[in-house]
């Protein structure tokens, strides 16, 4: 019987690349997105099921879980999310709530919806739950406080869930560095009217520099989404998947630097890098 994995956020980026990476390793894939039409160009096959899924909508989660009831679903990859950027001083409470609602509460809701199916279908130790976090779940940078907070929370949820469900289900947290994908385009869309709010403030040039730096960093140091997805699919398919999967040289070295540098020196270096 084919093992199936449900992946959230498959319309673009890592989620889209994960569909093919998991199929290549023999998984049946339930590919989900808020707009299922965005998945229409995925190659058809008996190993693919497309479903609409909004992780912030309980009715959508319930419908997706019912649609998967007849599958031998043994794994879940929580990939859906977006990045809310902007200086914390200028960020509205509702913008922070929306960031946490999708990246944290939605992730938890998806886990709660599909974990019972995984427990039912998977042999002891064969179930998988993968939380796609970020290296920014272990450190913080200016202009991305809301996103960093959400990914710190994702890491906490993954590590706590692992304590609660092991060894029956293996939980892996993924911590990518820069990835060349459409993710950075969503930063601009998520800003809303922030550019107008910061006009004439000291933050205006800093936000522009942040966006420019991210684009440049992704092109210079970022991995293609396909390469990142291949690493995730390979790791989760192991008999003993790693608890944490750090992806990218930039992620590895920035984590190492933060671990060894005094806090004051680390903060000075980050502020300097971001023009503060």
Describe what you observe in this structure.
- This protein is of the alpha/beta class and 276 residues long.
- It has a single domain (4-273), classed as Rossmann fold (3-Layer(aba) Sandwich).
- 50% of the residues lie in helices and 16% in strands.
- It has 10 helices and 9 strands.
- It has helices spanning 13-24, 58-67, 93-121, 145-165, 183-190, 194-197, 203-221, 225-236, 249-260, 263-273; strands spanning 4-7, 28-33, 48-52, 73-78, 127-132, 169-176, 179-180, 223-224, 244-247.
- The protein has a 7-stranded parallel sheet with strand order 3-2-1-4-5-6-9, sandwiched between helices. A two-stranded parallel ribbon has the order 7-8.
- α1 links the parallel β1 (4-7) and β2.
- α1 packs across α8 (225-236), α2 runs parallel beside α3 (93-121) and α3 packs parallel to α4 (145-165).
- It is globular.
- The protein starts with a strand and ends with a helix.
- The mean pLDDT is 93.
């Amino acid at each position: 019987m084919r093992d199936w994995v449900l992946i959230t956020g498959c319309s673009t980026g890592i989620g889209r690349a994960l569909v093919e990476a998991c199929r290549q390793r023999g998984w049946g894939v339930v590919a989900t997105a808020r707009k299922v039409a965005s998945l229409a160009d995925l190659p058809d096959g008996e190993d693919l099921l497309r479903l609409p899924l909004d992780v912030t909508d309980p009715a959508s989660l319930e419908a997706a879980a019912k649609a998967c009831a007849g599958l031998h679903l043994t794994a879940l990859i929580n990939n859906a999310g977006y990045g809310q950027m902007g200086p914390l001083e200028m960020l509205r409470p509702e913008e922070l709530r929306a960031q946490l609602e999708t990246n944290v509460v939605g992730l938890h809701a998806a886990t709660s919806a599909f974990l019972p199916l995984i427990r039912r279908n998977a042999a002891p130790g064969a179930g998988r739950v993968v939380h796609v976090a970020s290296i920014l779940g272990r450190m913080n940078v200016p202009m991305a406080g809301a996103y960093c907070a959400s990914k710190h929370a994702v890491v906490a949820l993954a590590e706590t869930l692992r304590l609660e469900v092991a060894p029956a289900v293996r939980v892996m947290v993924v911590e990518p560095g820069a990835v060349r994908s459409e993710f950075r385009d969503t930063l601009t869309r998520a800003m809303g009217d922030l550019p107008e709010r910061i006009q004439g403030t000291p933050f205006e040039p800093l936000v522009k520099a942040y966006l420019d730096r991210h684009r440049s960093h992704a092109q210079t140091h970022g991995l293609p989404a396909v390469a990142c997805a291949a690493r995730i699919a390979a790791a989760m398919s192991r008999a003993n998947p790693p608890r944490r999967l750090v992806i990218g040289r930039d992620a590895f070295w920035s984590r190492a630097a933060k671990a060894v540098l005094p806090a004051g020196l680390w903060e000075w270096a980050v502020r300097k890098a971001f023009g503060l």
